[in-house]
Amino acid sequence: MRVLVTRTQSASRKTAERLAALGHEPVILPLAQAQHHPDAVLSGMTRPHAALAITSAEALKACPTDSQVLRPHLETPLFAVGAATATAARALGFSNVTSADGDGEALSACIAQAAIDWSKPLLYLAGHPRKASLEQGLVRHGIPAVTVEAYRMQPIDYSSEEIIEQLAGKGIDAVLLYSAETARRFFALPIKTEVVDLFAGAQFFCLSPDIAEKVQEPFSHKVSIAPKPDEDGLFSLL
């Protein structure tokens, strides 16, 4: 299958490698690029906090690269939204990592179950834009939290001609959508008839129901939702 990957360039490369190993033909069309805010993360980490939370591995790229700066925080409990994000945290050196294997709501429930003294707040290394589910869940569970914007996603614009060139003028069989914002950006592209034709046979594979809701006509009847909200779940649809 020719599979369109719409993640950031670095994330898309990893996904493309997995797709190629499975015998698919990945086509990369990043719809956003991350602008990292390491100073904000460093400032947040220097304040007292009982634990860390991340909903994307992208936040880790804004963490201090100086090992001396990062070392005091590596044993701090870190709660990750899923297995891939947890793996990225461990690779950076964090040793006390828990994966919620779900979404922001599941992550807040996971944090609430932890035996932690919340006299100090949770430090949430967040992105923008983001869903409010984690922050809302923390409020419901009475967990004090400080949100630091670790990165901001900046959209990448394409003309119809650039999209056709990126797709090598050949049809796409499947489109992977990892977030509602990515889906919104995809359907905001200037898609002429020639581009629509390249997606005529495509299925849209979405990480969650809220993403599927963003798929517009004439493709809204060609949507599948991953059984689990992670990349393995998406790949199971291929």
Automatic annotation (TrEMBL):
<feature type="domain" description="Tetrapyrrole biosynthesis uroporphyrinogen III synthase">
    <location>
        <begin position="15"/>
        <end position="235"/>
    </location>
</feature>
<comment type="function">
    <text>Catalyzes cyclization of the linear tetrapyrrole, hydroxymethylbilane, to the macrocyclic uroporphyrinogen III.</text>
</comment>
<dbReference type="GO" id="GO:0004852">
    <property type="term" value="F:uroporphyrinogen-III synthase activity"/>
</dbReference>
<dbReference type="InterPro" id="IPR039793">
    <property type="entry name" value="UROS/Hem4"/>
</dbReference>
<dbReference type="Pfam" id="PF02602">
    <property type="entry name" value="HEM4"/>
</dbReference>
<dbReference type="InterPro" id="IPR003754">
    <property type="entry name" value="4pyrrol_synth_uPrphyn_synth"/>
</dbReference>
<dbReference type="GO" id="GO:0006780">
    <property type="term" value="P:uroporphyrinogen III biosynthetic process"/>
</dbReference>
<dbReference type="InterPro" id="IPR036108">
    <property type="entry name" value="4pyrrol_syn_uPrphyn_synt_sf"/>
</dbReference>
<keyword id="KW-0456">Lyase</keyword>
<dbReference type="GO" id="GO:0006782">
    <property type="term" value="P:protoporphyrinogen IX biosynthetic process"/>
</dbReference>
<comment type="similarity">
    <text>Belongs to the uroporphyrinogen-III synthase family.</text>
</comment>
<comment type="pathway">
    <text>Porphyrin-containing compound metabolism; protoporphyrin-IX biosynthesis; coproporphyrinogen-III from 5-aminolevulinate: step 3/4.</text>
</comment>
<protein>
    <recommendedName>
        <fullName>Uroporphyrinogen-III synthase</fullName>
        <ecNumber>4.2.1.75</ecNumber>
    </recommendedName>
</protein>
<keyword id="KW-0627">Porphyrin biosynthesis</keyword>
